[in-house]
Design goal:
- This protein has helices at 5-33, 53-73, 87-102, 106-110, 130-155, 162-166, and strands at residues 75-76, 116-121, 124-129.
- The chain has one domain (5-166): Up-down Bundle (Four Helix Bundle (Hemerythrin (Met), subunit A)), CATH 1.20.120.
- It is built from six helices and three strands; from the N terminus they run H-H-E-H-H-E-E-H-H.
- With 173 residues, the chain is mostly helical.
- Helix 1 (5-33) packs antiparallel against helix 3 (87-102) and helix 2 runs parallel beside helix 3 (87-102).
- A three-stranded mixed β-sheet has the order 1-2-3.
- The chain starts with a helix and ends in a 7-residue tail after the last helix.
Length: 173
C-alpha cells in the first residue's frame, strides 16, 4: 500500500481538528454547566513559561491549514498571535480550518509531493521537501499542540478521555 501526501497530511489534520472541535465543545459545555465563563480558558497555562490555550489551538490550525498553504507557497512561517478574543471565536476558527481542509482535493495535495518547503523564523531558514516537512515538523507539532490543549482542558476538570483526543479513526471499511 502506498501512502499519499494527502493521506499523511490532510487526513491526519482532519482527524485532529475534528477531535479538537469535539474537545472544545465539551470544554464549553463543562464551563457553562459549572457557571464559569469559557473565555477564561483562553489564558490557561500549565506553567508560567508556556504558551496559553489560545496559542495551542492556533498552532494546531497553523500546523494544518498553514502547512497546506506552505506546501503551495514553498515557505512556512509560524502563525502570529491571532485575534480571537473569545472561546467561541477560537472554536469557530477550528471549525473553519476543518471545513477548509475538507474542501481540498487529494490530487491538489499529492501534486506537491517532492516540492521544496522552507521553514522561516527570523534569520533561520531550514529547507525540507514536502513529505519530510509534514512527517518531521508539521505532524509532531500538530500533535504536541493538540495534546497540550487537551491537557489544559483536562486539568480544568473537563470530562475527556483518550478517545476524545484520538477523534475519528481511519478504520478499514
Amino acid at each position: 500500500m502506498t501512502t499519499s501526501l494527502y493521506s499523511l497530511s490532510v487526513e491526519s489534520y482532519l482527524q485532529t481538528l475534528g477531535a479538537l472541535d469535539r474537545v472544545m465543545t465539551k470544554g464549553a459545555t463543562h464551563y457553562s454547566d459549572n457557571g464559569k465563563n469559557p473565555d477564561d480558558i483562553l489564558s490557561l497555562r500549565m506553567v508560567d513559561n508556556m504558551m496559553n490555550f489560545k496559542f495551542q489551538v492556533l498552532s494546531v490550525i497553523g500546523q494544518s491549514v498553514g502547512t497546506i498553504e506552505s506546501l503551495r507557497s514553498g515557505v512556512f512561517s509560524p502563525p502570529g498571535k491571532s485575534d480571537p478574543t473569545t472561546y467561541a471565536e477560537l472554536h469557530a476558527k477550528v471549525q473553519a480550518a476543518h471545513a477548509e481542509l475538507k474542501a481540498i482535493e487529494a490530487d491538489d495535495v499529492n501534486s506537491m509531493a517532492g516540492a521544496d518547503v522552507v521553514f522561516e523564523l527570523g534569520e533561520t531558514k531550514i529547507p525540507f521537501v514536502a513529505e519530510d516537512f509534514v512527517l518531521s515538523f508539521s505532524l509532531p507539532n500538530l500533535y504536541f499542540h493538540a495534546a497540550t490543549a487537551y491537557d489544559l482542558l483536562r486539568k480544568e476538570g473537563v470530562p475527556l478521555g483518550k478517545r476524545d483526543f484520538l477523534g475519528s479513526l481511519k478504520i478499514k471499511r
